[in-house]
Amino acid sequence: MATVLLVEDNEQNRDMLGRRLRKRGYTVEEAVDGRQGVDMALQAQPDLILMDISLPEMSGLEATQAIRADEAGRTMPIIALTAHAMQSDRIEALQAGCDEFLAKPVDLPVLLETMQRLLESGRPPPDPALAAFAAYNE
Ligand code: MN
After folding, report:
1. CA–CA separation, 74 vs 64, rounded Å?
2. Per residue in 76-87, is it b (16+ CB within 10 Å) or e — as a string?
3. Rounded to the nearest whole angstrom, what is the distance from the C-alpha of residue 53 to the centroid of ligand 1?
4. pLDDT of residue 7
5. Cα of 134 to ligand 1 centre, how many Å?
6. Which of these, 64, 46, 47, lies nearest to 55 by C-alpha position?
7. For residue 138, how far is its CA from the centre of ligand 1 (angstroms)?
8. What gap in Å lies between CA 66 and CA 61, rounded to an integer?
9. Kind of pairing, strands 78-82 and 3-7?
10. Residue among 16, 6, 4, 3 nearest 81 (CA)
11. Which residues make Cβ contacts (< 8 Å) with residue 101, sequence separation at least 6?
12. How far apart are CA 126 and CA 129, in angstroms?
């Protein structure tokens, strides 16, 4: 079964989500801030990362960029989890290198399905609309 790195600073959220994922057979590693998230992502090489966006030390966006900037962090899927669920937040997360974006509070069936899809097929190809958007904003 897959190993998931859960990067979440809120202890209650972290405990609850971690427990739910372990109950379904996932091995869950936990990081409590962005910097620890980057270190653990690159060292432990999890199969998938759940990345809170609002984090101390380094935001989830900065952490994702740092992970993607390292050769060791290019292939694992990253799912952004955030209470800020506007379209602009979604675009920012995808531009930073996240592959999916889910609003908090997390809908567990949706999260599990998204995780499973990414674990089975790996990171999706870059979205052409996103590339066009990035080019437009250069
Ligand atoms: Mn947070």
Report:
1. 10
2. bbbbbbbeeeee
3. 6
4. 98
5. 26
6. 64
7. 29
8. 9
9. unpaired
10. 6
11. 79, 80, 82, 85, 89, 90, 93, 94
12. 9
- Name which residue leads in pLDDT, 26 or 1: 26
- Report the predicted TM-score, pTM, of the whole model to 2 decimal places: 0.93
Predicted pLDDT at 138: 63
C-alpha of residue 72 to centroid of ligand 1, in Å: 25
Distance of alpha carbon 84 from alpha carbon 137, whole angstroms: 22
pLDDT tens for 54-68 read: 999 999 999 999 999
Banded model confidence at residue 2, pLDDT cuts 50, 70, 90: very high
CB–CB of 59/86 below 8 Å? no
Q: Is the peptide bond before 105 cis (omega within 30 degrees of 0)?
A: yes
